[in-house]
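hiii so um. not sure if this is the right channel but i have a protein structure encoded as tokens and i wanna go backwards to a sequence. like what aa goes where. can anyone help
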């Protein structure tokens, strides 16, 4: 494979993937109008979604990494438009082409939210198209420069600001994977595409589940934040909360992948980054 389209190229996962692949592949980033492109390499071709010929562009590449996603957090946002209709439009465009679609999926069950239901819905509908689709079921990736609303970054910034933090009981267990390990996993999946079947799901995570309360305490220790300002149990669990989510990394490890940054090191790197940007 030589040419790759990446959707969501200005998002956290997409831009890190672009940085990792830009020296080895011809990359095109599908972007929305007014996207912040300042962190993307100049070698990457930029194509606006909805612009003249954008669907023709994706027909001429070897693979698409569909990293774009809509969590439904913005006012008036429709997760089904972003997470179902948009990728189906791409599948229709490449249905007679030898293009592989790598779909960045969620590990959340469909019952949890409209977001997770929309991701499930796309998985089901994608089976109707004669296109090789590999679903990459991602656990929680994190690291320096992640979105401020993401759980780990949000905790760090709230603690740095000295604010009291209200949380649920935080007994949920989650699989956290450092961004560099996640990107390496995606690259290995790309390079071993030939050994993967269409509609195969590859789970991407560290393979270790951590209790959220322990994660919050690790962050507090790094910042020397007083635990009496952390109010566990102040908020209820969300409806249909998942109490355990952890990747089965058997497939990835079979492709000679393994994570190199444990949670402690990853949190320390993320905290250090936030301290620098706060100065």
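sure thing!! here u go:
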């Amino acid at each position: 494979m030589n040419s790759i389209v990446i959707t969501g190229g200005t998002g956290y996962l997409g831009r890190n993937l672009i940085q990792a692949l830009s020296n080895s592949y011809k990359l095109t980033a599908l972007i929305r109008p007014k996207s912040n492109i300042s962190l993307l390499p100049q070698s990457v071709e930029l194509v606006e979604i909805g612009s003249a010929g954008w669907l023709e562009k994706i027909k001429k590449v070897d693979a698409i990494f569909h990293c774009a996603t809509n969590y439904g957090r913005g006012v008036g946002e429709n997760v089904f438009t972003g997470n179902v209709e948009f990728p189906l439009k791409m599948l229709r465009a490449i249905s007679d082409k030898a293009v592989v679609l790598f779909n960045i999926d969620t590990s959340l069950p469909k019952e949890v939210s409209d977001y997770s239901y929309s991701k499930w819905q796309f998985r089901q509908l994608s089976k109707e198209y004669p296109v090789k689709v590999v679903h990459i079921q991602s656990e929680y990736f994190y690291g320096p420069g992640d979105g401020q609303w993401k759980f780990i970054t949000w905790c760090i910034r709230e603690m740095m600001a000295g604010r009291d933090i209200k949380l649920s009981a935080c007994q949920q267990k989650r699989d956290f994977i450092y961004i560099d390990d996640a990107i390496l996993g995606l690259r290995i999946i790309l390079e071993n595409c030939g050994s993967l079947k269409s509609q195969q799901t590859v789970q991407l995570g560290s393979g270790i589940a951590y209790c959220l309360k322990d994660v919050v305490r690790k962050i507090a220790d790094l910042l020397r934040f007083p635990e009496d300002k952390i109010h566990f149990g102040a908020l209820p669990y969300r409806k249909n909360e998942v109490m355990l989510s952890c990747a089965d990394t058997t497939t990835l490890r079979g492709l000679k992948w393994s994570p190199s940054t444990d949670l402690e090191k990853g949190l320390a790197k993320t905290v250090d980054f936030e301290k620098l940007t706060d100065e």
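oh and The two ends are 42 Å apart (CA to CA).
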